[in-house]
Write a structure and sequence with these properties.
Nucleotidyltransferase, domain 5; 46% helix; alpha/beta; 4 domains; five-stranded mixed beta sheet
Length: 577
């Protein structure tokens, strides 16, 4: 659950997501104050689909520990989920543990709870007659026996030292079960049962039959365990409705810990090939990855990146098996995420379409204002006057048609109407000269004076275009032919479109004005120092980034830049300070 800034408020899991989420937004009278506070901040949800409850338990724990959400409590401590461990001993034991050490043992899991792991260990001891005693048992010396040997629940490595091969075979069977190879194990045991029956060893065959029956029940419930300390990234890519979504799931120590997604329009691949997009996402995900497990449509991208040689990373494109299922799960998450993006954009387009249609009606336009130019003026105490002309298409920024202008007709003091005239004239005449598509509407930041200046500019170009200005104080629209300003309903799609264009033009012009001011400041401060020309100013800017940082640098640091030297460095610092 996310707030409006995208911060994580709460992490949870659910079999039925709709019921779980809906329950938070029903009558809240019986809710704890903490829950009511949580609900008041929720603005969005992110989801990760897992293939089992077990995996959801583990992922929830990992995400809560990594993100420490404000409204999660129970899983914030450093308690870890348990593993099943086969010890590194002459006659290994199978135990449940919460900690993993580099002790040569083999670890499986993690499991959702310590109880579930202990019950599984008990089942293994019943099935395979392995020892559970804590005493050290070597391969030579006799150790005291326990009652389990007498009642036939252990094959007795404490007393019988010649069973190492048999015991080792049993441990291999335990390993197959824990590592998700239950079906392979069952097939092997069925062959042993048939061999025993053919040899008339019916009691032995019956024992194996009973063991197979129990294993079949385990197999039905068992999810694949990752036996090794697998550190991998699972990648999948899906395309739909002209968009591509690339999903990356991160596996650390054999468990899914997080996922990342990136989507873009397929048209953008002309500028950014798939391999560059993949590399960008890969470089941003910092993990101790050893393996890349990817879908077929991404394999070539990773091969082109040459990761295998440069970073010792193995690249897999599985066709069958557990890793193929991991890719399919990542693909399922990608499909879900992309559909969510498409639904949101569809909803947004519906709102934008309604807003543009409302503008058309309110302003008496002949056609839908699909292409809109927005203008704004920015200056600093009358100096460095600049104008911005932004372009919106279907209510969205169309940045390839953005333009910036240094105002030439106004100097030493501000004159917004005159500046607007110049900016509109230059932008519109440029379209006419280059035979580019003209906008359906011009939107000017300001009131009547700015509107009249823009109308004069359009007339002087020799064309006719609808022009409207948006005054910020009352959010009123002024337009030729309207005796009174038009006030759109607050929060309406039409007003939001106008505000977005106005705000974007304001941002764009301020960025340019700030850049000019910075350059002017740098020029005036450094150029005033004799012996400091453009090349040395550029070198100082590359080394320090700003005049303020040059001021606080040491003489030695400044002297090292370019060919400045110590004498000039002392002079620069003396003048700046």
């Amino acid at each position: 659950m996310l707030d409006r800034k995208g911060n994580i408020l709460y992490i949870g899991k659910a079999k039925n997501l709709k019921k779980r989420v809906s329950s938070y937004f029903l009558s809240s009278t019986n809710f704890h104050p903490k829950t009511r506070a949580l609900v008041s901040f929720i603005t969005d949800f992110d989801t990760i689909i897992t293939s089992s409850e077990y995996e959801a338990f583990v992922l929830e724990s990992q995400l809560i520990k990594d993100n420490q959400p404000k409204y999660n409590i129970s899983l914030k401590d450093d308690k870890s989920y348990p593993f099943i461990k086969i010890t590194n001993e002459p006659f290994p034991r199978v135990i449940s543990t919460r900690r993993r050490y580099k002790d040569g043992a083999t670890y499986y899991g993690p499991f959702p709870s310590i109880g579930s792991s202990r019950r599984f260990v008990q089942l293994l001891e019943e099935l395979f007659l392995i020892r559970d005693c804590k005493q050290k048992i070597d391969a030579i010396t006799l150790q005291p026996k326990c009652i389990k040997l007498d009642i036939g629940r252990c094959i007795g490595p404490c007393m019988y030292k010649n069973i190492q091969v048999e015991y080792s075979d049993i441990i291999k069977e335990v390993d197959m079960l824990l590592s998700g190879k239950s079906r392979v194990l069952i097939n092997q045991m069925q062959k042993k049962m048939l061999i025993a029956a053919d040899s008339l060893a019916f009691e032995k065959a019956a024992e194996i039959r009973d063991k197979i029956s129990k294993l079949e029940k385990v197999y039905e419930k068992q999810h694949v365990f990752l036996t090794e300390s697998l550190n991998a990234q699972v990648w999948a890519s899906v395309d739909n409705e002209g968009k591509r979504y690339i999903m990356t799931q991160v596996i650390i120590d054999g468990k899914l810990t997080n996922q990342f997604g990136l989507f873009y329009d397929l048209e953008d691949e002309k500028l950014n090939p798939l391999e560059s997009v993949v590399f960008q996402q890969f470089s941003q995900i910092q993990t101790g990855v050893q393996d890349i497990i990817c879908s077929e449509n991404l394999e070539n991208s990773f091969l082109k990146m040459d990761l295998k040689e440069s970073k010792h990373i193995n690249i897999h494109c599985p066709k069958i098996g557990d890793k193929k299922r991991m890719v399919m799960l990542a693909q399922k998450n990608a499909e879900y995420a992309l559909q969510k993006v498409i639904d949101k954009e569809s909803e947004s387009k519906g709102s934008v379409g309604a807003g543009l249609d409302m503008l058309r009606k309110k302003l008496n336009l002949k056609s839908l204002p699909v292409l809109i130019f927005g203008f704004d003026i920015s200056h600093h105490q009358g100096e460095n006057i600049v104008a911005a002309a932004v372009t919106f298409k279907f209510g969205k920024p169309y940045k390839s048609l953005y333009r910036r202008y240094n105002i030439r007709s106004v100097k030493d003091k501000s004159d917004d109407p005159k500046s607007i005239y110049e900016a509109v004239f230059r932008r519109v005449s440029g379209c006419v000269e280059k035979k580019q598509t003209l906008p359906d509407l011009l939107l000017i930041d300001g009131g009547k004076p700015q509107l009249n200046a823009a109308l004069r500019a359009v007339n002087d170009v020799g064309i006719s275009l609808p022009v409207v200005s948006l005054a910020k104080r009352e959010e009123e629209l002024f337009m030729e032919g309207f005796s009174e300003p038009l006030k759109l309903q607050e929060g309406s799609p039409a007003l939001r479109i106008c505000q977005n264009i106005r705000d974007e033009a304001h941002r764009f012009s301020n960025d340019l004005q700030r850049l000019k001011r910075t350059k002017s400041y740098v020029h005036s401060r450094l150029h005033a120092i004799s012996g400091v020309g453009n090349s040395r100013i550029n070198a100082l800017f590359v080394a320090f980034g700003s005049v303020d940082l040059v001021k606080v640098a040491s003489v030695e640091e400044v002297a090292k830049v370019g060919n400045i030297g110590r004498v000039l460095a002392e002079k620069i610092l003396r003048e700046l300070n």
